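Fig. S4 source data, part A: sequence.
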Amino acid sequence: MANKRGFSFVEVLIFCFISVILLTLIVGMISNSKDFSRTLGCINNMKTISQAIEQFQGDNNETPASLADLYPRYITSNNVFHCPSDSHDGNSYESIYIGRSNIEEDANKMFLACHRHHKNSKAVVAYLSYAVDIGKSQKVTWSGMPVEYGQLCNPGVMGFADGTQVEIKTGNASPLSSFISNEEKIYSIIYVPDKTNTTLEINHHGDTIFEIITPAVIAGVEGTKFTVATLWFPEVEDENPTNSTTVSVTEGAVNLQERTFAGKKKLAPQVLNTMTVNAIGWKESELPPSLLEQSSNPRGRMNFVSRKPKRRHNR
């Protein structure tokens, strides 16, 4: 009668090792498949939003001040405003929406960037050309520590992957986005929220795209050293509140675009090194719901596009 032979210890170890590898590969494939599906959902959402903005601009000859302006005439389902990778309910894109002028000439400027994908290593980006791409996210630090996109930072130094440094002298500011753009350049944006008195000193490095957004202006830089100072003037009597932004250039050049009236100027030390722009703010009673500050948001973020447009349309 033949002797029954079991598995040796080495064979059991080999079997376990192969099983673990196969299980890891399967779990990874499932996880990547879910990530891909959620990313694709975000891409489709942004394409729908892009088309809706294009229709809105055609009808109203201006860009929407808030994504809420698109609902329900141009976007009929609120699900379009929610990224599948967002673990929170509600509008995923409002706080990262940049309401740019509808006469902006550079089609490679972005107006939405969602960094929630592939463990925050990828960004889904929508451009004014109505193209939607995926870019690799770039790290941003504040006082030497990693900082999340949208997180408000107090006085200290923000550092970017291209070597650019932004010193927050007073008030607060936040990195909105930093990623590899469709032009294969690092594209970084920071913003100054409403109702703040903030002073920033910017030292931009390299051949990269860098923008500072305040309620009054969008400042795009070209290898530049300059200062941005914002002042908030609360409502006096029956007048609307006002956001004032002053840009002073000490080196290089700054392309400045007014947010309310779409005026454009290029600032350089030898031509014009200081410019002050005012933007009429919203009264609390006339703020669109999407622009109201959410007290439940631990970051205290408020939609930074809350400047008053030239006119509102009743629909």
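Fig. S4 source data, part B ends here. Residues 9-60 form the longest helix (52 residues).
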